[in-house]
Amino acid sequence: xxxxxSLLGGLLLSTFSTTTWAxxxxxxxxxxxxxxxxxxxxxxxxxxxxxxxAEIGSDLAAPSNVEIIAADGRWVTPGLIAPFSRLGLMDIGxxxxxxxxxxxxxxxxxxxxxxxxYNPKSVFVANTRRMGVTHAVISPSAAGDxxxxxxxxxxxxxxxxxxxxxxxxxxxxQLGENGTRRAGGSRAAALQQLRxxxxxxxxxxxxxxxxxxxxxxxxxxxxxxxxAARGQMPLMISANRAQDLLNIIKLKNEYGSLDIxxxxxxxxxxIADELAAAKIKVMIDPHDNLPTSFDSVEARLDNIVLLxxxxxxxxxxxxxxxxxxxxxTLAQHAGNAxxxxxxxxxxxxxxxxxxxxxxxxxxxxxxxxxxATLVVWDGDPLNVTSAPxxxxxxxxxQSLTSRQTALRDRYNPTSDDTRLHKYR
Amino acid sequence: xxxxxxxxxLGTTSLALLAACGDKTETKNEGKADKAxxxxxxxxxxxxxxxxxxxxxxxxxxxQELESGSVLIADGRISAIGTEVKGEASLTIDAGGKYVTPGxxxxxxxxxxxxxPSVHAHGDGNExxxxxxxxxxxxxxxxxxxxxxxxxxxxxxxxxxxLPGSANLFGGRGVTLRNIPxxxxxxxxxxxxxxxxxxxxxxxxxxxxxxxxxxxSRMGNVAGYRKNWxxxxxxxxxxxxxxxxxxxxxxxxxxxxxxxxxxxxQMHCYRADxxxxxxxxxxxxxxxxxxxxxAVESYKIADILKESxxxxxxxxxxxxxxxxxYDGILENVPFxxxxxxxxxxxxxxxxGIQRLNQEVAKTWAHGNRAGxxxxxxxxxxxxxxxPAKALGISDETGTLEVGKRADIVIWSADPFTxxxxxxxxxxxxxxxxxxxxxxxxxxxxxxxxxx
Lengths: 424, 451
Prior knowledge:
The complex is a heterodimer of chains A (424) and B (451). Chain A is α/β, with parallel strands linked by helices. In chain A, 29% of the residues lie in helices and 22% in strands. Chain A is built from 15 helices and 16 strands. In chain A, strand 8 and strand 9 (164-174) form a beta hairpin. In chain A, helix 5 crosses helix 6, helix 6 (187-202) crosses helix 7 (219-229) and helix 6 packs parallel to helix 8. Chain A starts with a helix and ends in a 14-residue tail after the last helix. The model of chain A is unreliable at 1-20 (pLDDT under 50). Chain B has a domain at 2-8 and 104-396: TIM Barrel (Alpha-Beta Barrel), CATH 3.20.20.140. Helices cover 27% and strands 22% of the residues of chain B. Chain B has 11 helices and 18 strands. Chain B has helices at 2-21, 147-154, 203-209, 218-241, 250-259, 272-285, 302-307, 332-338, 356-369, 376-379, 385-390, and strands at residues 26-27, 51-59, 65-74, 77-82, 91-94, 99-102, 104-109, 157-162, 170-178, 196-200, 248-249, 264-269, 289-294, 311-314, 343-345, 408-411, 422-427, 430-434. In chain B, strands 2, 3, 4, 5, 6, 16, 17 and 18 form an 8-stranded mixed beta sheet that branches. An 8-stranded mixed beta sheet of chain B has the order 7-8-9-10-12-13-14-15. In chain B, helix 4 crosses helix 5 (250-259), helix 4 packs parallel to helix 6 (272-285) and helix 8 packs across helix 9. The two termini of chain B are 33 Å apart. Mean pLDDT of chain B is 93; it is low at 1-32.
């Protein structure tokens, strides 16, 4: 019965269809957010062919043999990119055996690849995808005595096997309170561990006659830090206190070519000009406004607005524990940046075009010839009441169902199914 | 998730406390029961003007929405509301068509007892020394200088309920507070609001006490509740009888007050099957579970919850951080509501409490997308009306009705959007937050920082 119902109507069909292989689509009457100089185009059509956006224009004729997605004036945007998460690295956060985010007792650090732990079948992948997120940056977290979490990756959220887009996208380091504790108990120790590691990687391989010849890193880890130590890969550092951020600027000056992204940066507004001058990028959670620790005593809601005014480059993230496990509410966080004074276009770019640029992803914008990675929404994507109705990743239709929607459908009070729940 | 971590951290330090202080909770009965209650509320409404809010789009919390109406506030209470309000006011506020709603009530908060900054010294929200700590009172761990209170006010929260944590089967007494910037917790206590008892199901008690004498399983949890209700029944019998040989026991006093219907049970419980077992225990010992908190699986047993008149306080989209929360769906609140059971939102979080309207907007939209047809004015009940009911204060607040406290929010836009912000927040008719002129409270902790 449910099956027949789901076949009625284009919208329902699309909602319940499973992932299909790349084919051609005609999207009609879209309010298209391009993230290019063309801005947002009202009432436009798109032709998707072979995974690419073949044509954009008003009143295009639908080619034959394409599936038609009627946007009916609603929003069509690039897919959202979660710039920081541990998606697919854990099933149940509280159950250690299902949690691969960190390795307390391993013999390696920087060289551990989050992509090796990534589980595309984690229910959180599909549950996050149905909220409009097509890609996520995934990061391991630091453990034991090391301030290094390891090497992070970028994945697409198709949920298919082999959905890692970039297995080695950045190296993750924790300073602030967490790194301080791991390094032995002081900020000085944490910063010195970082310097020693950068020196090891800078002198790799000549410094290493044996695997333990480094000051801070063994041979494998020094090798893994090689690119980031030379600015050929981002070095992502978590820190919040303004003075810690100034120390990171100093570090960048000492080492010259580092490509630094700071995660957290709750007090960044205090030194916005310095960050802009040093071309250090920041990942901001626009909900951060409490003195959660003595690292973020001066956190405030308009941090991102002040950074924007100073010309600092930023992305928006949900840095709460659950937001990291599954960045499904990324759009809400961007929406709240708008509520606090950032422009809609800038907030939206901070969860699409900007992270795409930082991590070298195709996507993040929509133009002719670009990858067809896009979402059709039933309303303003930054409004909490909106949700996707269709999604393509590189031209492939994505399912917007998940374990959550299966539970929803089984227990929906509008259902007239009287069978026992386990038979529904 | 954060709370679990805190509890684990606290485990070791509070054990030391127990060793130092002993577990002496019994005192001699003083005889007279009608003397002034301990830790009495000293809350006093701030002075307010007779205020008329006109040209307002009113969601009143009873399920009604007025496209254009007025609210008259006199002596801190709502004295008139509707499309044709007459009355003299010394202050008139033209809302300019903006939304006006009741103040938000958060039934599950740890502000003050897990305050920011989250240093070890601030972990006063859970007495993790025994699975039975019904003798402790959340209010004794509340630090009124928690900066989170100030931010919650700016999110439209006018009343909030602070509970002990969930490590224990019986965690202790919860307290309902007015969100008034104050120096003492007594000055925040909601006058005449009933006490509550925090209880907890499932994973937390058995995890925390599994290696400390139990409970170590859900079986042990249930046995623990029952053994103590039996003790409470015997204690109540003695107390009812009175006389020389009766002596007070703080631990059992709280439970006996539950049996007397004076204290409302607020129970942390995730799984549907477990909630139904708890309802059976309540039948066995003839008490009432007022609200299940977190209640991630309430949607699976909404019909049973309706029948037992038990409320559910839920998140819009928190789930999956532990096994018992794995089956969370985005439609939990509207599904419970649609079954005719009492549903509400809650935060359990110092950031979430600042935007509970967005959490309701989210889950409301998901519910309607799943085929329900709930109007906004009906969904608003999840923010103030139902929490007031579940806290036993609905005669005083939770809706905009004549005679109630004038706890009112004027919004910059439709509160069912991401972009809306409270512009003015009234507590008992007194303006406590005003975005326009920068009026807002600032905790002592924040002095000397910033700028």
